[in-house]
Amino acid sequence: MLGSTLFVDKSRDRVRPVVNLFLDELEEIDQYSWASGTLAWLYRCLGQASRAGARGVAGCLTLLQCWIYEYFPGFRPSHFEPPVVGPDEAWASRWIGQPATGSVADPSVRLAFYRRALDSLTPADVFWTPFHQRPHLEVRRSLYTGVIRLADIGEFYDPARCLRQFGYRQMIPPPPSRPQRADRPEAPGGYVIRIPESFDAAWDALLSHMVHIDMYSQPWRTYPYETTADYLDWFVAHSHCRVLRDDGDADRLVDSAAVRFDH
User: Fold this and answer.
1) Which residues pair with 148 in a beta bridge?
2) Where, by residue number, does the polypeptide cross the bilayer (predicted)?
3) Residue 253: its H or E element
4) pLDDT tens figures, 163-189
5) Beta-carbon neighbour count of residue 45 at 10 Å?
6) What residues does 104 pair with on adjacent strands?
7) Selection from 160, 158, 170 nearest residue 223 by Cα
8) First to last CA, the chain
9) DSSP per residue, 97-165
10) Where are the alpha helices (H) located in 50-99, listed in sequence order?
11) H or E stretch covering 181
């Protein structure tokens, strides 16, 4: 469960020694926040995988894949309507045994193909609130803002940057928190993010370290991807809005391949 599902790395059948420390006191297992630890480890693995020298990705990819299916219907398995799960069933079980979405014959163009598919998305192609119209009403800690951690691995969690997933209009978020040290070289092996342990105190002081969303923004009124008037200009100025270059090379690669992609 720990080494092959939640905290997967690239060592196949090995487990990070620090994970075993969580099992020293079995009676305390149910007191750990396994969800935030899993998410912190996935965030770190995605950061490492973003380096130019990376050759793979680790982390709980079951969580990542199910997140993709829930928010991006166009990437779901073809011709499949996920069933309703019971209160005692894992939400991800909706996707058990389903084949991947379509296929791209040539691996050399597969990445370019999916990048173009991402660039073709419109806001209406996203299911912004798949779990609940106001998910923070069900899970209050989802509005926590601060550090989530797995032992020595710390990552920032900031729901103010994705308010539409909580059923609210997106507005310009406050500046992100900065780590004590951040080294992100081309080789993922040298990837280091250090966050002072003093930041961890926020976890136990939820009321003072959460987005008070009702004061921060307003529920969307016309459509679920609504933003404030100034947000999109800010987003374009601070983000990479497209994945592919605009020189047409990727399009030529994709169009030259025999592509099958059934939505």
Assistant:
1) 155
2) none
3) helix 249-255
4) 999 999 999 999 988 888 888 888 777
5) 25
6) 259
7) 170
8) 33
9) TPPPS-EES-HHHHHHHHHHHHHT--GGGS-S-SS-SSGGGT-GGGGB-EEEEETTEEEEE-GGGGGGG
10) 61-71
11) strand 181-183
Rounded CA separation 248/244 (Å): 9
Distance CA 213, CA 218 (A): 8
Angle at alpha carbon of residue 50, lines to 46 and 53, rounded to 5°: 125
- Which tokens in the block code for residue 222? 């016309």
Residues found in the chain: 263
Q: Are 60 and 6 in contact (CB under 8 A)?
A: yes
Separation between Cα atoms, residue 154 and residue 178, nearest integer Å: 12
C-alpha dist (Å) from residue 167 to 39, 131, 136, 227, 236: 21, 11, 9, 11, 22
| 130 contacts 180 by C-beta, under 8 angstroms | no
| Residue 190 contacts residue 51 (beta carbons within 8 Å) | no
**Cα–Cα distance measured from residue 6 to residue 45, given in angstroms and rounded to the nearest whole number:** 12
Digit-coded pLDDT (tens) for 91-130: 888 888 766 555 556 766 777 888 889 999 999 999 999 9
Q: What is the pLDDT of residue 256?
A: 41
Taking the C-alpha atoms of residue 171 and residue 209, their distance in angstroms, rounded to an integer, is 19
Query: 192 pairs with which residues across the strands?
Result: 183
Q: Residue 156's beta-bridge partner residues?
A: 147
Q: How far, CA to CA in Å, does 194 sit from each of 147, 183, 205, 252?
A: 11, 9, 21, 42
